Structures are given as C-alpha cells and as structure tokens.
Amino acid sequence: MTVSMLVDEHHEPKSESPLDENRNWPTHGTFEYTSYYHSRREIISFKEFSAKSKEFDFVVIGAGPIGAALAYKLAKDWPKSQVLVVEKNWAEPDRIVGELMQPGGCQAIEQLGLCNVFSDIGAVPVHGYYISYRGRQLHVPYMHDANGQLRGVSFHHGRLVMNLRAACKAQSNILCVEGSVTELVGQVDNGRFTTVRGVRVGPQRMQADGSDECVDVSSRKLTFVCDGITSQFRKQLNERPVELISHFCGLVLEHEPVTSDTYFDGPTGTTSHVSRPVDAKGNPLPMPHNGNVMLDGVGPVLLYQMSERETRVLADIPGPLLPSESNGQLRETLRTSLSRAAPKHLYPGLHAALMRSLDDSRRIRCIGSKFIPATANTIDGAVWIGDALNVRHPLTGGGMTVGLWDVVILTDLLRTHDAANPRQVQRVKAQWQWRRRPRALVVNVLSVALHALFAAETKELGLLREACFDYLAKGSYFTMQPSGFLSGLLPSPMLLVFHFFSVAFLAVYLRISDKSVAYSGGSLVYRVYSAFYTLYIAATVILPVIWRELQP
After folding, report:
1. Confidence at residue 542, expressed as pLDDT on a 0 to 100 scale
2. 3-state SS string over 73-109?
C-alpha cells in the first residue's frame, strides 16, 4: 500500500491546483521515499539481528522525528559508515502533540535535505496564529523573507514520522532494528557514566522477570540518545526532577475542507477578518490554515488542522494534577473550558463541533506538559539530543524546531572533526551547546512564559495576559518580532527579554491608569503598588527560566 492510498483511505482531498501551498517545503506532490512508507523489508527483528555483526560506526536510539532525521543525515554525510537505528515499534505512532512544524523547523528540515517530507501525508500549510481574548481577535502572521511570507506546516504526527523513517529505510548504510535498548554500555565511575561504548539490545517486548537474552552492540564513533520525552536514559545525564506544568487534553474535529482561501490571512494585529460558520460540518476555525489560540478557557485552547478534514483540539488544564475522568470531573472541566473559549454566540459552528467531539469521545487523551532544560554533556562516546535532552511546554509548538536545528548544527560540526576522537568530540559538544543555545533558549523560555500568562492563575498574571494581547494587537514590529520568536525564525534572547518587559511595563501602565479589564479598581496608591508588584511577578516568570536555560 502506498502513502497515496493511505491518504485516500483517510478521505484526504485531491487537488491538482491546491488553494494553498508552501513555496520551499511543499505539502502537495510526491515524497521521493514514498515506496518505503509501509515497507518492513528493511526492518529486522531482534532475533535476526542477534545473528549479525555487533559493531557499528553510529548507534541511534529511537526513530522518532529527531532520531530518524539524525540517522538519515549521518548516513548521507558518512556514506561509508554503518548506522544502527534501534526502535521499539516501527508502526505508525499515534500522538496528540508534535503535529505542527514552525517555519524555523521547516528551515532545518530543508537543511537536512528533506524539504519534500511533508508531501503525500495530507499536510496543511500554516500562515501564523489567530488569537482570541474577551471577544477581541488578532492575527499574528509568520515573518517574511526576500521571497514572501514564510509558512509552517501542520500534519498527523505519525505520518510525518513514517515519512522520515521511510527516508532512513531507503539508505543502504542504515540498519533498522525493531527491539529495545535496555541499557547503555561503557565505563562507570561512582555510579555515573564517564564513557559510553555502545548499547545493550533486547527483544521488542521484554519479559518482566528480565530473563530475555540481550546482545551488546559497540559504537566505533558515537551513540545518540533520541528516545524522546519519556527517555529512560536521561537520568544518566540529568538527575534533576522533572517539572510538570500542566496537561494537554486532545480531541479531533472532523469537517469538510475549506473551499476558499479568504480567511487564511488577515491584517497584522487587531482584526475582524475571521470566519464564524454556523454549520458545524464545515471547517469551524476562525482562521483556517492557522494555529487558532483561544485564551478564555480554563487554560489556553489550541486548534490547528492535521489535514483538510481534521482539526486537532488541545485544551490546557493548568497545574500538575489532572481531574479524574472516571467520576466525570475531566469532561466537566473540558466542557467549561471549551464553552468559555469558544462561546456559542461568537463561534456557533466551532462551539457545536467542540461539544459534539467531546460527547462522542469515549476516552479523553491527555499528555503532561513538562519543562526540562538542557544539561552539558561531558560523557564520552554519547550525545543526548531532542526531547531526551531538552523539553519545553508544547503550547508554542517549538519542540521539533529546537530538535531539528540541534541535528543540523551537530552534524555540521561533526563533519569537520573526527567523531572517533573523544577530545575532538568534546570540543564539538561545547561548540554545539553554544551555537544551539540562542534558538533553544528563545523557544523554551517563550513556551513556559507564555503558558504562565495564558493560563493566568492570579490577577497579576491576568493583567500580564491582557497586556500581552494588547501589545501583539498593535501590529508592526510589536506583532512581527514576537512572531519571529514563536516561529523559531528570530533566535535573539536579548530581543525576547526586551519585548517581554515591554509587555510588563504596558501592564504597569494599564494598572496605574485603571484601563485594565483583567485587574481593575482600587485607590491610586494601591494601583501603583499592585502595578509594580505585577512587574515583579513578570520578572519571576521569565528570569528563573532563563537562568535554568543558561546553566551548564
């Protein structure tokens, strides 16, 4: 079965002249490795692998988006090297995040030589963000380059991963194994790894009593740990406790494709150019082909298309504890949040679609949102990369952007060094950490800070949220430079701090002048006091996150 057939099975629309297309990373057309999408001929089982050579130049743990992209780039850059990729399950993954690629991530994909990877999977171009708050709307488009507006892409996560894996399977110097990496192998000193020389590989499904026979695999150059957000090997590098910020609860809206591009773009900043369909069968989004963020729920509600006929809904529930689904609390919380975010009198079609999806869902899928800053790696022979190294809140959709640029920067540095020489690799790691930091810091800090403002659990944070919305609504660079932070196109930490505190001082003005809706009332003296206390709260939101990102 080809991917084109898969698309047909999911009822994706065929169009020879699509309404919308990306200039540099097309969503229509054919991916050159399509024939490998479903193929399992290139994947060997653990039983077959146990009879083969156990020595490789590079070992990659995990074939998610970062692991698969990394393995492909290694195979291309070192065509005479042997690359081993160990993945527990090569079937199409099913996740509720990692479904929107910012333009910055698309640029990294292009650098890796995979700019057609979004073809053949029913992906949708993304023009920017629509944001609603207290009945007001604004549009935050993506930045422009010399050839026009840059765009992101949204898609089914599993389909993109399968395209990336198809590219891996097509390389003759990559061996794809379906099995489990049970542990790292190397030199340990005082309970900590000092050198990694390979991995221990076992069957796909391990016995609970540990009776399975495993085999040791050695890596002549490097082992890459890319086993994602739930990495079992992160603790070897980073023993800090994981901070759970909130939970995203996922739903899917099914609808007809749009027949006009009227609402794909609008004025920058404040806009009334939005779609408000009454019929829930049509595309219900205020601005199709954009990320739609509704700020009036219990937490922010994010909506984006996975295809022309499907839209993902991610409703945030702040805090580390999730309401119970068994007693109905979770559904009631979601119903309240979605109704507040998309009230019936403003968004009749969207409100109906959200309620229908919630009522029809047998089980609510949820995922914890975490923040894990990167840690400097002094362990010889291994590199942690992707979510195994660094995790941020998924609100801004920047995870793959950071991870893919990590791959680009790291492989570019390794090409000019001897990957088998530990001293040279340590120099590469130091340069990599320095070069990756600006973009990673901007994306990571912005994700945590924006969630704190958009979730707004106090009056002060509510005031900052209002000021943030007013700031973005101004248009010009007030809108476009923050758009650059969101999209991963403007990796400038100093500029991020400037804009964040500009928002904070706007909040001070709104409070003192008593023009705020979120935080109003009180005498002048009290308003001055609470305004500068809000400034202090703003500092406590962003500065500790920046400090943690800057730690070695």
Report:
1. 97
2. HHHHHCCCCCEEEEECCCCCCCCCCCCEECHHHHHHH
- What is the β-pairing status of strands 43-45 and 174-178? parallel
Residue 136, burial from CB neighbour count under 10 angstroms (0-12, 13-18, 19+): middle
Q: How far apart are CA 461 and CA 453, in angstroms?
A: 5
| CA pair distance 153, 103, nearest whole angstrom | 8
Average pLDDT, the chain: 93
Return the residue matching tokens 């919308």.
20
- Quick check: 180 and 88 in contact, CB under 8 A? yes
Collect all residues with Cβ–Cβ distance below 8 Å to 241 and sequence separation of at least 6: none
Whether this prediction's pTM lies above 0.70 is answered by yes
The span from the CA of 532 to the CA of 528, in Å, is: 6
Strand arrangement of the beta sheet that strand 124-126 belongs to: 100-101, 152-154, 124-126
Three-class DSSP category at 527 = helix
pLDDT in tens, 425-461: 999 999 999 999 999 999 999 999 999 999 988 999 9
Whole-number pLDDT of residue 316: 97
Q: Which residue has the tokens 């476009």?
A: 480
What does residue 108 show for φ and ψ, rounded to 5 degrees?
-65, -40
At position 20, the amino acid (one-letter code) is: D
Residue 200 pLDDT class (50, 70, 90 cuts): very high
* Other beta carbons within 10 Å of 5: 10
Q: Which two tokens stand for residue 464?
A: 């900052």
